[in-house]
Amino acid sequence: MMGSLDGFPLPAAQCDPSTGRCTIKNAFRTWPDRVDCQARYSSQLADFLGVVSEVTLQLEPLFKRKVTLKTVRNDKGLEDAIVELVELATAYEFGDVHWYPSQYTVVYRLDDRVPSTTSGDGVFRFLGFQPILGAEIGAVRALEVESENLQSSAIKCEAAAAILNSSLLLGQGLENNGVSFEGYPVIGPNQLMETSGGCQNSPDLPPNVPPAQGYFCSWDPRPHGLFYHETSIYVPLSNISSFILDVKALRDVTQASSLCGIDEYDGLLMRFTTHSDAYLGNPEDGVEVDFVYYRADNPNTPRLNEDVMEELEQICLHKYAGRPHWGKSRVVTFDGISQKYPSIAEFLAVKNKFDPQGLFSSEWSDAILGVAKPGAPGVTIVRPYCALEGLCICSEDVHCAPELNYFCRPGKIYQDARVCQYVA
Question: Mean pLDDT score of the chain, rounded to an integer?
């Protein structure tokens, strides 16, 4: 199916049934905004950016997924289970591990493909991505803010325990028949087990109806929804046992309650990644460590256990040669990132070949790739309170919030870390 837009072809696909290979040709332009695009759809816009790309895909037969969540209410020896973790990654194509350190609980996702003829109509509807009543979202956020204002880890720990227990009872959103969770294993078509959203389809809020009465994604700002940071960092598999030991050591030094703020948001997710020869690929098999935590509405406001979150981030990134996820991590994690990729020069050569004028570059991409122009902004932004938002690693107290008794201090177990610590 072919069409044209100002002389440019619309998306088209040509497939060879004998090989399952499809070539997609796509041409497009960019407009300043949607209104401008609609207004000028049929006009000749020679002054706008045009791109032609060609992508070849390899199709594969349909298959189903078979999932069982194995819960272990004791994380003793997790650091010694590296062989088992590797076996999990090898035996289960889509396996991962959720670790809830404040709850001393580990949940193993045993998730692999099975033939499409296998009986089962399962669906995965991740609980955190389902539409929620605005009043409930606002109440959860209000409780978070209260626990922060009261400096109360107890409130966070009660919430973390309740969220984990209810999530496990509900199969973390797995449904055997597309309606409810009845037990493991849950078997269903890959396209329904891989996708997990739902809240994006919430109905629009009618005029004059308050947000409290509508349904939204939990992070929607209209009902004063959740607001959080996310840190996602690749750690080489050879370092993961030491990382787990460090998390436990941090838990012992600061008390388990210091990690309840992470477990409120589904704990530490550990996903397995394979090595790659790509210029920006990871040179060895690894674990993507992902955790989410509270973010204040005011960027100058520190969070409860601020230092613990920052130390975890720096342990991953600096002590264990971590690399940030390109789309999920805070600004500070990208500082000096180009130096962690030995083939960065080869990547830049390819980039410059296909985009010699830098049309797809920005000051930000230049900064993280180490090719910022003289006088252009760097990656980090050093100013008062910058460490609280992950814009810098503190080197002075002013980067924290000294008037609120948050000062720049070394980490508790990783002495090279510099974190904003509450000092009574």
Answer: 88
pLDDT confidence tier of residue 15, bands split at 50, 70 and 90: low
Among 247, 270, 300, residue at a domain's last position: 300
Query: Residue 40 is part of which domain span?
Result: 4-58
pLDDT of residue 23: 61
pTM of the model: 0.86
Question: Do 84 and 144 fall into the same domain?
Answer: yes
The token duo for 45 is 């816009």
Domain shared by 51 and 71, yes or no: no
Q: Look at residues 287, 273, 230, 259 and name the one whose alpha carbon lies nearest to residue 79.
A: 287
145: in domain: yes
In terms of C-beta density within 10 A (0-12 exposed, 13-18 middle, 19 or more buried), how is residue 100 classed?
buried
State mean pLDDT over 200-229: 92
Kindly state whether residues 244 and 102 are assigned to the same domain.
yes
Peptide bond into 185 cis (omega under 30): yes
Structural domain count of the chain:
2
Q: Which of 88, 84, 83 is nearest to 69 (CA)?
A: 88
